[in-house]
Write a structure and sequence with these properties.
Layout lengths: L2 H7 L9 E4 L5 H7 L6 E4 L1 H4 L4 H10 L4 E4 L13 H14 L3 E5 L2 E4 L2 E7 L5 H18 L4 E3 L14 H12 L2 E5 H11 L3 H7 L5 E6 L3 E2 L4 E2 L8 H14 L4 E3 L8 H16 L29 H12 L27 H23 L1 H7 L1 H14 L14 H7 L9 H16 L22 E5 L4 E5 L3 H5 L19 E8 L2 E7 L1 H11 L4 H12 L6 H10 L3 E9 L2 E4 L1
């Protein structure tokens, strides 16, 4: 039986995991030192599937002690673009490596037309969308070889084309595709307030046996709507909804999320302990078999909107979300057409669209700040965010992982106006990007230093050396390493930055999961540059004569140190095109 057939044949059979929390970078040290008393952890898939460095090492250590679930944000199962095969391959590789108890993602779309908006964007609740998502969920399950869970998302707009309520849309997809449901109770509460429906009606219409996990989280009251920020404790009405959900489905694995303004781990433990209190009261509970109600009250009835396909609706939504650098396009608000959105709880759809448009810029700024810490320190938050907003308009994202959003930032800085007072900034940003790539690179087992002694002296000139993927060299006419260190200097502060041009040659690499930068002299830089280009040691050493003159260079000592630091992967002797002797 196929994965989809097996999943559809019976109820969701998730283990009784208990109550867990999200695995976040801020808590790595505490978790590894204390091994706290939580039942399990949920890791964001994208934070670990594209890295060969410290994050995946941490995840493996956590997995050795706890069950782990993988929760994705970029599957984009609702998009009309083809499924991203690279994404699926990396997700499968991570799942095979970690052996998670649950793999989940969201019932949404995050991009279209090859561009990623890095958001959990809502779908129209139509039969076309159901058929489309069902097909894609089945493809994903077949590829991964396992059932997945899909999560209901928080929303701030609904479409005029929707023909059913959200809960019916979610339920139909789960029933037809064979997937299970990750029921986010905070999102139900948020949507109920934003779109004016009864959250208990939502719960009543979810079919028995299809829920495999609960999410609990906090949100922010923005006055005219609720915003799903995951930045606060769970509020009492959501706890009440959790009790109702436990009453209906029994002990479903429960996860407490906290993603913004992340507190100390002890605060997460308090929330998890409260969830355990409610969870434990249903240990011997046998949920009654209750038929779904198929309730349609609270549904905004379809208006007399012109018929549009799913791809047309998503493209129109995209046009409102991503800011454009083309000034001829005109203001985003002026181009909204009245037949796309319903009023949202009495508020015009246009007003709520700003949540998504502002969110895109904020996420770009967030992704840049994670990589370009020193650049932000030099500019100060206000100038850095303004630069990030202009970058968001000029460079659309084409990668599913937000950590790759800043790939063009250094070149953008080189031509951006208003940066004459920081002429070194582009080089500093380029150094930071290379350090980020080194941090995540998929390094290989290092070359054993003792093997260098096995290479006959007369063969060294034919040696070709392969370095770790994390290794790179960098040159700047500015003292960029010294400037980068300013962010770590408590005596430094935002202000006017004046530096004299002092050239620096740098070797970037990762040792013991930490990225390090080593100052090189011109001869070392020239040597490494040639070797990284695939040239033999003999060929490179001929060029070094121009740098060293009559001085004999300690090349052997350099190689010994680099090998000892784990920067070398292999050393091969290539005497001729037809002869290759591995060292």
């Amino acid at each position: 039986m196929s994965v989809n057939g097996a999943a559809a044949a019976g109820k969701a059979r998730q283990p009784k995991l208990g109550c867990g929390v999200g695995l976040r970078t801020k808590h790595y040290s505490y978790i590894l030192e204390q091994w706290p008393k939580v039942d399990w952890f949920e890791a964001i898939s994208e934070n670990y599937m594209d890295t060969g460095g410290r994050p995946i090492q941490i995840l493996e250590k956590v997995r050795s002690r706890y069950p782990v679930a993988l929760h994705g944000v970029s599957l984009s199962v609702g998009s009309t673009d083809p499924l991203n095969l690279i994404y699926l391959k990396r997700l499968k590789a991570l799942a095979d490596r970690i052996d998670p108890v649950i793999v989940s993602d969201h019932l949404c779309w995050s991009g279209i037309g090859g561009e990623n908006l890095h958001d959990l964007l809502p779908l129209p609740f139509t039969e076309e969308a159901i058929a489309h998502v069902v097909s894609r969920v089945q493809q994903v399950q077949e590829f991964l070889g396992r059932q997945i869970l899909i999560e209901n998302v928080s929303t701030y707009v609904t479409y005029a084309h929707s023909a059913m309520p959200e809960w019916e849309f979610l339920s139909e997809i789960a029933k037809r595709s064979g997937c299970s449901i990750l029921l986010d109770l905070n999102n139900i509460f948020v949507n109920a307030a934003n779109h004016r429906f009864d959250p208990l009606v939502y719960l009543a219409d979810i079919p028995a046996g299809k829920v495999g996990q609960f999410h609990l989280a906090g949100h922010t009251d923005m006055g005219s709507f609720l915003f799903d920020t995951h930045s606060a404790p769970v509020i009492d009405p959501v706890w009440e909804l959790y009790r109702e959900a436990l009453k209906k489905w029994g002990q479903i694995p429960t996860l407490v999320e906290w993603d913004e303004n992340i507190p100390e781990f002890s605060k997460l433990e308090e929330e998890c302990t409260r969830a355990k209190f409610f969870y434990s009261r249903f240990e011997n509970w046998n949920p009654p078999e209750v038929a779904a109600s198929s309730a349609r009250e609270s549904l905004n009835p379809p208006r007399d909107a012109s018929p549009q396909s799913l791809v047309e609706i998503l493209n129109r939504m995209k046009a409102y979300v991503r800011p454009l650098s083309d000034s001829k396009a005109g203001p985003r608000e002026a181009r909204e057409e009245s037949d796309l959105l319903n009023p949202q709880g009495g508020v015009a759809g246009r007003e709520r669209m700003s949540v998504y448009a502002g969110g895109y810029v904020a996420r770009v700024q967030e992704g840049l700040a994670d990589v370009y810490e020193a650049t932000q320190f030099i500019l100060g938050p206000e100038r850095f965010n303004a630069l990030g907003e202009a970058y968001a308009a000029a460079y659309p994202s084409h990668h599913y992982n937000l950590s790759r959003i800043g790939i063009h930032f250094p070149e953008f800085i080189r031509t951006a106006p208003g940066l004459d007072d920081v002429p070194f900034l582009a080089d500093l940003a380029e150094l930071e990007w290379r350090m980020a790539e080194a941090f995540h690179a998929f390094d290989k087992p290092p070359f054993v230093p003792a093997q260098l002694a096995d290479i006959p002296l007369e063969d060294w000139e034919y040696a070709k050396v392969v370095f770790q993927p994390s290794s790179a060299i960098f040159f700047s006419p500015w003292p960029v390493l010294d400037i980068w260190k300013k962010k770590q200097d408590p005596g430094s502060h935002e202000g006017q930055w004046v530096f004299q041009k002092t050239p620096q040659h740098l070797l970037i690499g990762r040792r013991d999961a930490q990225v390090r930068c080593e100052l090189l002299n011109p001869a070392q830089h020239k040597l490494l540059e040639g070797l990284l280009q695939g040239r033999t040691l003999g060929e490179v050493c001929e060029d070094l004569a121009d740098v060293s003159g009559e001085e004999e260079l300690p090349v052997a000592a350099w190689f010994s140190r680099w090998a000892a630091d784990g920067l070398l992967v292999s050393c091969e002797i290539k005497r001729s095109p037809n002869v290759s002797l591995a060292s």
